[in-house]
Amino acid sequence: MIELLTKYERFEELEYKIRRLKSELESGKSKYSTEVIQASIKEREKEMFEIEEKYIKPVNLVDERQRLVKQLLSRYERTKLH
Protein backbone atom coordinates (compact mmCIF):
# COMPACT_ATOMS: atom_id res chain seq x y z
CA MET A 1 0.00 0.00 0.00
CA ILE A 2 2.87 2.36 0.81
CA GLU A 3 4.44 1.64 -2.57
CA LEU A 4 1.14 2.47 -4.26
CA LEU A 5 0.91 5.79 -2.42
CA THR A 6 4.50 6.58 -3.36
CA LYS A 7 3.68 5.95 -7.02
CA TYR A 8 0.60 8.18 -6.81
CA GLU A 9 2.77 10.90 -5.30
CA ARG A 10 5.35 10.52 -8.08
CA PHE A 11 2.58 10.62 -10.69
CA GLU A 12 1.28 13.92 -9.24
CA GLU A 13 4.81 15.32 -9.17
CA LEU A 14 5.37 14.43 -12.83
CA GLU A 15 2.03 15.93 -13.77
CA TYR A 16 3.03 19.22 -12.12
CA LYS A 17 6.45 19.26 -13.79
CA ILE A 18 4.90 18.67 -17.21
CA ARG A 19 2.45 21.54 -16.71
CA ARG A 20 5.31 23.81 -15.64
CA LEU A 21 7.47 22.81 -18.62
CA LYS A 22 4.61 23.34 -21.07
CA SER A 23 3.99 26.75 -19.55
CA GLU A 24 7.67 27.64 -19.96
CA LEU A 25 7.58 26.43 -23.55
CA GLU A 26 4.49 28.50 -24.37
CA SER A 27 5.85 31.65 -22.75
CA GLY A 28 9.18 31.40 -24.56
CA LYS A 29 10.99 32.57 -21.42
CA SER A 30 12.92 29.38 -20.75
CA LYS A 31 16.69 29.31 -20.56
CA TYR A 32 16.59 25.91 -22.29
CA SER A 33 16.00 25.23 -25.96
CA THR A 34 12.62 24.09 -27.24
CA GLU A 35 14.08 20.68 -28.12
CA VAL A 36 15.38 20.13 -24.59
CA ILE A 37 12.05 21.08 -23.02
CA GLN A 38 10.10 18.88 -25.44
CA ALA A 39 12.42 15.94 -24.73
CA SER A 40 11.99 16.47 -21.00
CA ILE A 41 8.20 16.59 -21.35
CA LYS A 42 8.22 13.42 -23.44
CA GLU A 43 10.42 11.60 -20.91
CA ARG A 44 8.17 12.58 -18.00
CA GLU A 45 5.02 11.64 -19.92
CA LYS A 46 6.53 8.22 -20.61
CA GLU A 47 7.24 7.71 -16.90
CA MET A 48 3.68 8.82 -16.05
CA PHE A 49 2.27 6.36 -18.57
CA GLU A 50 4.32 3.51 -17.06
CA ILE A 51 3.14 4.36 -13.54
CA GLU A 52 -0.45 4.62 -14.73
CA GLU A 53 -0.33 1.27 -16.54
CA LYS A 54 1.37 -0.60 -13.72
CA TYR A 55 -0.10 0.94 -10.57
CA ILE A 56 -3.02 3.26 -11.14
CA LYS A 57 -5.23 1.51 -13.67
CA PRO A 58 -5.19 -1.96 -12.09
CA VAL A 59 -5.90 -0.77 -8.55
CA ASN A 60 -9.33 0.41 -7.64
CA LEU A 61 -8.78 2.16 -4.31
CA VAL A 62 -12.29 1.43 -3.05
CA ASP A 63 -11.81 -2.29 -3.64
CA GLU A 64 -8.34 -2.12 -2.08
CA ARG A 65 -9.75 -0.39 1.00
CA GLN A 66 -12.51 -2.98 1.36
CA ARG A 67 -10.00 -5.79 1.04
CA LEU A 68 -7.79 -4.28 3.74
CA VAL A 69 -10.75 -3.70 6.08
CA LYS A 70 -11.86 -7.33 5.67
CA GLN A 71 -8.33 -8.50 6.35
CA LEU A 72 -8.11 -6.35 9.47
CA LEU A 73 -11.48 -7.56 10.75
CA SER A 74 -10.59 -11.21 10.24
CA ARG A 75 -7.33 -10.73 12.15
CA TYR A 76 -9.21 -8.99 14.94
CA GLU A 77 -11.73 -11.83 15.16
CA ARG A 78 -8.95 -14.44 15.24
CA THR A 79 -7.17 -12.68 18.09
CA LYS A 80 -10.45 -12.24 19.93
CA LEU A 81 -11.09 -16.00 19.80
CA HIS A 82 -7.70 -16.90 21.27
* Structure class: mainly alpha
Main β-sheet description = none
Can you count the helices? 3
Rg measurement, Å: 20 Å
- What is the total tally of β strands? 0
Low-confidence stretches: none
Helix-residue proportion: over 70%
Which percent range describes the beta-strand content? under 5%
Order of helices and strands: HHH
Number of domains: 1
Coarse shape: rod-shaped
Summed over residues and divided by their number, the pLDDT gives a mean of: 88
What is the first-to-last residue Cα distance? 28 Å
What report would you give on this structure?
This protein has helices spanning 2-27, 34-56, 61-81. It contains three helices and no strands. It has 82 residues and is mostly helical. Helix 1 runs antiparallel to helix 2. The model has no long low-confidence stretch (mean pLDDT 88). It has one domain. The radius of gyration is 20 Å and the shape is rod-shaped.
Q: Would you summarize the structure shown here?
A:
The protein is mainly alpha-helical.
Descriptive labels:
85% helix
Task: Outline the fold blueprint.
Elements: H1 2-27, H2 34-56, H3 61-81
